Amino acid sequence: MRKSFAAAAVLAIATPGLVLLGATSASAAEDAKLSVFHGVPGLTVDVYVNGDLTLDDFEPGSFAGPLDLPAGTYTVAITAADAADDSAPAIGPIDLTLDAGVNYTAAAHLDAAGAPTATLFTNDTSKTSAGEGRLTVRHVAAAPAVDLLAGGAPVAGFTDITNPNEKLADLAAGTVDEVAIAATGTTDSVLDIGAVEVVEGTNTIAYAWGSLADDNLAVAVQSIDGLHSAPSSVPAGEAGLADGSGAPLWALVAGALAAFGALISTRRLVASRS
Amino acid sequence: METAMGTAAEGRKVVGQPAHRRRPSRRGPLVGLIASVVVLVSVSAAVAVGGPEGNVGERPQFDSQSFQGSQSPTNPASPNPEVISDGLTLTVQPADPPAKQDLAEPVRLAIPSVGIDARVDPTGVNPDGVAVVPKDAYRVGWYKFGPSPGSLEGSAVIVGHVDSKTQGRGALYPLRGVRVGDLITVGLDQGNDVVYRVVARESISKKRLPVSELFSRDGSPRLTLITCGGAYVKALGYTDNVVVTAEPVKRGATK
Questions:
Q1: Where is A34: in which H helix or E strand?
Q2: Facing A19 at nearest CB: one of B53, B73, B89
Q3: Searching chain A, which residue's CA lies closest to the CA of residue B215?
Q4: Is the ipTM of this complex over 0.90?
Q5: Nearest CA to CA, how far is A113 from chain B (Å)?
Q6: Chain A residues with beta carbon closer than 8 angstroms to that of B40
Q7: Model confidence over B156-172: pLDDT tens digits?
Q8: Tell me: the pLDDT tens digits for A195-211?
Q9: Contact at CB, A255 and B39, closer than 8 angstroms
Q10: What is the value of pTM for the model shown?
Q11: How far apart are CA B252 and CA B218, in angstroms?
Q12: N or C end: fewer C-beta atoms under 10 angstroms in chain A?
């Protein structure tokens, strides 16, 4: 896994700049957002939505979307690639009910015992505090309950994750090194992930997918950004040297002297005229 | 008034006018009155402005789309669009973990017109959500979670102390004197410079500081500099923030 992770890193560095995906429509705020994750190893599929072919030749380990869809219920059927229609689905048909303004990921994956299934996850797009990012770990692999490890030790809040469930938390932005997955209660890695970047203002969603028995566990990552908050204030002074509340001291002193001088002179003027 | 622009020696010469032209018995009172009026006017002007900062220029309204829940692919390499039956396009991308982006970071901030030239450190927030300002008042901080200077979108923010109890005037003390049109140069760690032109300088009450707008990651690119200003109340500190907004100058347009 380390090797493919490094390869991905090289690709991403070689291609700077993010390509924003998904059609943004005028009514985006009222639409639901739907991404699709394909996590069934070795099975290229077609995806039918409401009977129409929507995704052709969808490869394992890929995401599609996000799509802006009007709120409602969608019937999804997943067939073997190049099936004539959705009459003999490998997964489903299942009904997905999408609410307005909510961000979802539908995952086609294996259950804990290794049978193909599908799960609709709701992605947490609530705001993160300034300086924090959100980490979500989803278990969609044919494997027992797992713990997330960092540096060989379980990460608080990310233990005993079972298929098809998730654990999530907001963490200080930064790099978490030596991330791995182990069967719950153990520290023997079954999947080395390497360094994970907790990106400020972003929900980084990691999917553990594949099959432990078939030795093809893998990790897939989806990112949802734009959740950031601004700092609350900027305290950038402490000594009062730039105090702008009144006149500078020199002006006050000069003014007092001038007023005193004028008073004396006026008296003299009055005296000289009398 | 020429003496104001002249050398010190010329100034002295003017002051030392021939004694025979003086008529102190008559002019003394008048001169005193005029001097006091001038000084009083200058004093009241300083009070009326409420500090030397004031506002110059106008901070533009930067386009900002709804940003919540925007989504980016984990790997922008070779997107593979799939046309779906009802005409929408779904984009499929590999689900490999994203790599840390190696973006340019600012290392130096210079505003020659007011004598600002400071080193830049990347800074974030304290656990309570307050922006970190470098302890060393001679250095300034770039808000590392927002856009970097030179980014194509959003507000790159640099903060710095106006003063410090131990160091006196801070790096951004002269910000209060920045004028519309002044040029700002930000040096990046990759060796190149980004040049901005000031469009506004404001003194904004800390209670009403529009942080979401100033730290926005959307809209047209700009540089936002923030320090303290306004009145200084011993128990509370400064009442205001001085905010300078600048827009990028196209390459070659500075001369």
A1: strand A32-39
A2: B73
A3: A230
A4: no
A5: 23
A6: 255, 258-259
A7: 999 999 999 999 999 99
A8: 999 999 999 999 999 99
A9: yes
A10: 0.74
A11: 26
A12: C
